[in-house]
Amino acid sequence: MFRPPFKHLLLFVIRLTGELTRNSSGNFALGVAVLAPLLLGTAGGGLDFLIYEHHKSELQDAADATALAAVREASMKGWSASSAQEIAGAVIRSNLSNRFSSATFEYTTSVNEEARQVTVTLSQDHYRYFLMGYFTGSPQITVSATARRTGQETICIIAQAPNGPEVLKIEGDADVSAPGCSAYAGSIDPKGLSVKNTSSLTTKLSCSVGGYAGSSRNYSPLPITDCPAISDPLASRASEIDGSLSTQCDFNKFEVKNAALTLSPGTYCQGLKISGGAHVTFSPGVYVIRNGELSVDGKSAINGSGIAFVFIGEKAVLKFANDSNVSLSAPEQGLMSGILIYARQVGNKHRDFNIQSRDAGRLIGTVYLPGDNLTVGGDKDGDGLCDSDNNQTLTTPVSEQCISDVGTMSAWTAIIAYKMHVTAGATLIINSNYASSRVPVPDGIGPKSGRIVLSQ
Questions:
Q1: Are 337 and 308 in contact (CB under 8 A)?
Q2: What's the pLDDT band for 151 if we cut at 50, 70, 90?
Q3: pLDDT (0 to 100) of residue 29
Q4: Helix axes 81-96, 26-76, angle to 10 degrees
Q5: What's the sign of the alpha-carbon dihedral 171, 172, 174, 179?
Q6: What 8-state DSSP symbol labels residue 300?
Q7: DSSP state of 129
Q8: DSSP states along 225-262
Q9: Looking at residue 164, what is its pLDDT?
Q10: pTM of the model
Q11: With left for phi above 0 and alpha for psi between -120 and 50, is residue 152 left, alpha or beta?
């Protein structure tokens, strides 16, 4: 409960009154006796004004915090008015219950889905002021706050490297199609975004902090340059995930070769290898790959729903070879909800993750490699030309060996990497049919990628 500094002002008035009453003049003492209530009333009124303004400021802070929390909750649940109202009540109680023990509060929320905003109105009354609480009705204080989402709403590709050319690079005859969402290159370099040769980038919008390389034929539409830098939208999630992981090994150098097997969640130390035409089903849960490679090759196939792969350690990487078949979707709930692949950063080292599969049409969820590089396609030496794969038969034409088909059958996919390279022969489809999947989109990307700000 707020306790205003009455003491010093009241002591001053009392001392002043005492000095005046000790004056020998009876008339003066009588005058002081008459003026004393006025002096006290003036002091009390001044204190009431200070208290009123302090309460109003605290209520405004609470309204601001409530609006910000409510718009986040409303947008996560399809701009639900009931969700906004529920979270508003919880935030108000948390912020104010211990501050004004004798006050009562009323609040309302208003959700505007079209404008992507929530308005919270908060009123307080029945607080005992120094003077007004005894001689007049306690005044009601009413404040309001409006929060909304701003900026591009459908970011689905982010290359986060802040410096250097070609942090988002598409070359050869690669095709990246994301017509319902946006691609973002975070480098300040004039060629931070690069689409070369006969490759193409089709997006709702592409944005580069620096500039771009390539002709108008490579882009649809042309990129926007000098975009503002954005922070890692999943950084807070990464901290939570890192704090929850167990490093105790459940399996060591695990290999499945030429067999059909169902695997269980756990920590796979020194890698997990699937080869020789093996067919592996992953049971729902989190698979920690520690200091080793998760590799799928030799015409092997993997599938699973409600799963997440987490990579920890300098040697922890992923490789889906060209002849592999991959069908995976992320968890629908829990700490890893919406995240299919996550790699914990290892200092300044940038590991290389590779998806070369010609049949990886179902990758539902977020590929989150904040400190690492992702290559999609079979151009291993980075020269823009297709490279031969030793696992292919000698009769397979080289031009066919690098064909990669990633994401075609996914309801939605999102990719966040330090750098991203899509190479010759690759077709990467980034769908954005968020409503058709039960896998939730993490806050900060997809339809939740706009920033939340106070607008009133």
A1: no
A2: low
A3: 55
A4: 140
A5: positive
A6: -
A7: -
A8: -SPPP---TTHHHHHHHHHH-----SEEEEEEESSEEE
A9: 97
A10: 0.67
A11: beta
